[in-house]
Amino acid sequence: MSAMPGTDAGQAIGITRQMARAALAYSDAVLPPQALTVAKQCILDWFAVTLPGSREHCAVLLAEELEAYGAGPCSVIGRTSRLSPRDAALANGTASHALDYDDVNRTMAGHPSVAIFPAVLAIAESEKRTGREALVAFVAGYEMASVVGGLVGPSHYARGYHATGTVGAIGATVAAGLLLGLDETAMDHAIGLAATQSAGLKAMFGSMAKPLHAGKAAANGVLAARLAMRGFTGQPGVLEADQGFIGALSDEPVRVPAMPVPGTEITSTLFKYHAACYFTHSTIDCLTALRVRTGLTPDAIATVELHVGPAHLQACQIGDPRSGLEAKFSLTHAAALALCGRDTAALETFTDAAIDDPQVAATRERVIVHGDAAAGGAIFARIRTVAGECHDVAHDTGIVNTDLVAQGARIDAKYLSLAVPVVGAAAALRLKAVIAQLEDLPTVDALLREISGEDG
Asked: Which residues have a Cβ under 8 Å from the Cβ of 252 and sit 6 or more positions away?
């Protein structure tokens, strides 16, 4: 492709250009085995949540709208239609975040896979890239998103931005740009085009708009990279520019980041084992452990006081949820579910029908939440019983699991529990086996063939 206008040779290399250069280096990098393992765990987990997510009302509405006006070469999970790369990324990204059951990265302060992998899948399928190229691009996009998250955090999230939609768009662009063969200057422009499209407000949590953030991030990444490939330009150096991404969307000073050694950040992925916002997970795990240890029943509980970090309360402050979707963003509801022994891994627990569970509703009334715990640390719970007893417990779910075998077993179980009801046991197992050999595939078509029933 032709070179695009960029910085003069004599100018200092800015942060955006450094990121573009670091991203391109992934093409020749030898990723460590643990990085490949976790990357494939992310992809298996992505399919686990996307298959049932494609049946959610928001995903169906969006897919129907996109199908009404266009077609293309790319697969849409859960449907027979094919869309353009951008629209397929939009549809698949939205479906993958519809259940809010997908992975998390604390440095990014968001959900990396749902924003980045749909872009990878769309470009890899349309451009006939190999499984290894797709895997490397996914890791590159994921790790560059983490770099950007570190540059704008924590004030970006505290201001009300949903990093999955904002930071995720830049990660999706890097991944798509790598697959499209952008050079350093074009990648700089692509990042700028993604940054100027970035959006996503935390005020939308508990609505259909939240999963749309992931879809838009993936679609914006595809569009930005494809436009840059054609010679479409933005202002270079968008991350560090005056009124650029860092300055406009955060309170952080512009500082030079340390670029990760390829494959070292993706191993920090946190996976979800409860079908709700990640900020409810420490509460669920904490109170479940206490219930099991003490044998407390809901009618024995007088009050529950939760002390959580400010971000937990900001994201999950719906005190009286009226839908299954709102329940995913309610700390009081999460606490009640745990104390009532409900299965928070089951999708049925977070449906509109389940919201009126009388025992859960009654228990929820006794939960008080304080946002005064240290940010990024453990949450603390104190339960007082009607008999006058007091039970204290603390827990932090946000600790990376270094036992990748044990982590893989949990993800396998989650995947089968979610995928089998949608595609059947045989297809689910075939897809799982294909993902395990992703780096050896000549194209990504086999990934999609296993769940579409297509031949060839």
From this structure: 151, 152, 153, 155, 156, 246
